[in-house]
Write a structure and sequence with these properties.
single chain; about 120 residues; mainly beta; about 0% helix
């Protein structure tokens, strides 16, 4: 079973930055899409950002201009640079992968807390 590894969560003050990373080194196939979802306490999981292979990153409106998703297609890795963080960005962030064959993979989740 392919394991998705996430890193980079933590606690920052409003206006701070964090960088999340995601990799699935055990995968034998390419990834059609990589991105992140997040889930805040008491709320549904929402799509934050994603990039289809060969396309441009897409973002939910609330993070546009603050978050940047980057992919290394050859290495099957992705990162999410989060700047100008706000308290409402506090959530567990999950890496989400769709393999070339359509299988969906999830990371274990990493906590991001934005608080003064």
């Amino acid at each position: 079973q392919v394991q998705v590894m996430e890193s980079g969560g933590g606690s920052v003050q409003p206006g701070g930055s964090l960088r999340l990373s995601c990799a699935a080194p055990g995968s034998n196939s390419g990834f059609a899409r990589m991105g992140w979802y997040r889930q805040a306490p008491g709320k549904e999981r929402e799509l934050v950002a994603y990039q289809i292979t060969g396309g441009l990153p897409e973002y939910v409106d609330s993070v546009k201009g603050r978050f940047t998703l980057s992919r290394d297609i050859a290495k099957n890795t992705a990162s999410l640079q989060m700047n100008s963080l706000k308290p409402e960005d506090t959530a567990v962030y999950y890496c989400h992968i769709i393999q070339a064959g359509g299988r969906v993979l999830w990371g274990q989740g990493t906590q991001v807390t934005v608080s003064s």
